[in-house]
Amino acid sequence: MQKVFIYSSLLLLGLIASQWLPGILESSYASFGDIVRILTMAGLSFLMIRVGYEFDIDKSNLKQYGWDYVIAFTAASFPWLFVTLYFVFVLLPPEFWNSLAAWKETLLAGRFAAPTSAGVLFSMLAAAGLGATWLYRKARILAIFDDLDTVLLMIPLKMLMVGIAWQLGVIVFVMVIMLTVAYVFLHKVRIPVSWHWVLGYSAIITAFSELIYKSSKFIDESVPIHIEVLLPAFVLGCIIAYPKHENGTDTVVPDGHDHAEIETPTEKRVATIVAAVFMVLVGLSMPLILSTDMVESGSSVYSAIEPSLHAGGSPDAEMAAADIGVQQDIGRITASQPTMGWSMITLHVIIVTLISNLGKMFPALCYQREAHWRERLAVSIGMWPRGEVGAGVLVISLSYGIGGPIVTIAMLSLALNLLLTGFFIYLAKRLTKSLPEYSVSS
User: Stretch 195-215: mean pLDDT, rounded?
Assistant: First the structure.
């Protein structure tokens, strides 16, 4: 658990820096934000390529993955639903409960609670020595599906905010193509997988993602296309073939975790360094917690983490500004939120954090024929960490002019979840420690 403590400290260090760097760098913070964004994307690519390389599925039993997807869907939608309901029925006056504008704004603000931070989760579980466990394998599948669901659920929300855009359809089409490639060519493409090659792949994926985004702005600057790096990096890892035995046959990898090529001391050391830097970058990706006037300088840091999120950045804020009616609705909703002291804000932060994590608990009720109840509970707790994607949602909310206590509470809740990541992983490890041999009949 020493490595988990170090990672948690680095997350905290990045979070602290994210709060005072904007004031120090001032006008140059936007350029610094671009550097943070690109490095975060590259680090996430590196981690997800390795996750994809270790990922394997049983093609003869695809039904189980359908159930996994359903469970992951609950993990991506229940926290969003719970937090949105809380924002509407607790933090807004009754006259706004039937307001479509209020629901749209709170649906967007509440979206921060949905996505599990896959990069943070995988790094922390591996650091805790859980990489060879049922917990890690199941959390890996659920977190990946969770991120896919997050993207898909953002698309109708995006359409609700700005209308139907063909660019969102392109994103869905590309996702389907990439998933098909991952399935058809699963561990069949023989390319190097050592750390320096993976760093190169990560740089290429990041650059390609940026190129598509910049190019699409020439077509329609208001709704650019951004293919977030998580999925292509994961797909690349999935298609990389395992090494061959001396007799020429492919290596059979039991349970998908015994990979000699990435288990050498050098590979582990580089992976640890990349994960450590990634933790700092995730912390740096947090919005200002006590201020909402940083949208213009800060949106470049966060908007590229999620494909649908990038389509909702500052250009869309200009579109929204042109619609006076929308701005008036947002202003009325923000003004309608009650003034709160810090004691009341703290109470709401705790409640929102609890209900958002409660929304991730459905996996604990499932897999009864696969794992002990403590393992199932550990999987749900393992899905609690949030990070850069949730921060991106909050910055998008700010770019639309949404403010008031709702956004402050959402930011503080996200920060609290981020700070507690190490504790969550500690709980998961404790739950799975010294478990008895589990059988289907139990």
Answer: 92
What tokens appear for 223 in the block? 């709704």
Q: What are phi and psi of 32, to 5 degrees?
A: -60, -40
The Cα–Cα gap between 270 and 272 comes to 5
Alpha-carbon distance of 120 to 132, in angstroms, equals: 17
- Band (pLDDT 50/70/90 cuts) for residue 285 is confident
Q: How far apart are CA 367 and CA 401, in angstroms?
A: 43
Q: Residue 244 in 3-state DSSP?
A: strand
Find, among 364, 390, 352, the residue nearest to 147 by Cα. 390
Which phi and psi (to 5°) does residue 339 adopt? Answer: -70, 135
What does pTM read for this prediction? Answer: 0.71
**DSSP secondary structure, 280-331, as one string:** HHHHHTPPPSS-S--HHHHHHHHTTSSHHHHTTSHHHHHHHHH-HHHHHHHH
**Digit-coded pLDDT (tens) for 336-364:** 677 778 899 899 999 999 999 999 999 99
In this structure, what is the dihedral angle of CA atoms 329, 333, 335, 336, given to the nearest 10 degrees?
130
Give the separation between CA 322 and CA 203, rounded to whole angstroms.
Answer: 37
Q: What angle do CA 87, 89, 95 make, to 5 degrees?
A: 115
- For the stretch 1-52, pLDDT in tens is 677 788 778 878 888 888 888 888 878 877 888 888 889 889 888 988 988 8
CATH of domain 2-431: 1.20.1530.20
Q: Between helices 388-399 and 405-419, what is the axis angle to 10°?
A: 170
How big is the chain, counted in residues?
442
Which residues, other chains included, contact 21 with Cβ-Cβ below 8 Å and sequence gap of 6+? 29, 32, 284
**For the chain, domain boundaries:** 2-431
